[in-house]
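Moderator note: this is an archived Q&A kept for reference. The question asked for a predicted structure of one protein chain; the sequence and the answer are reproduced below.
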Amino acid sequence: MSTAVEIVSFGYLHDAPPAAHLTIDLRHHFRDPHVSPELRYMTADDEPVRTAVLGTPGIADLVEATATAVAAFAAGPSAGTVTVADGCAGGRHRAPTFARALAEQLTAAGHAVTVSHRDLSKAVVQR
């Protein structure tokens, strides 16, 4: 059964999280590529960032667990889009990479998925 799923990646340092059925906070448990000078000004559009994020222990398990949670929402008696928001500090590294990995998994499971990156193109937050 195909369910519409909307995934929104974002950065907590830019604005409040978007409204969602599931909000995944990647800030505290997963290493931030921003701390590496060679990755700081890159984004999830760059392979080294994706490799660093997806190679972080626990990320693949969290993608799978989130996909399972989406399936649980989709199995409920009320139809409608399931919205997942996933955020990191600046919204340029972890969150968009996670969003794309989740979208891949959900698409493979037959869901109709849209992905947007609220803060991916914003300037690097100096911290």
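Archived answer notes: The first strand starts at residue 4 and ends at 11.
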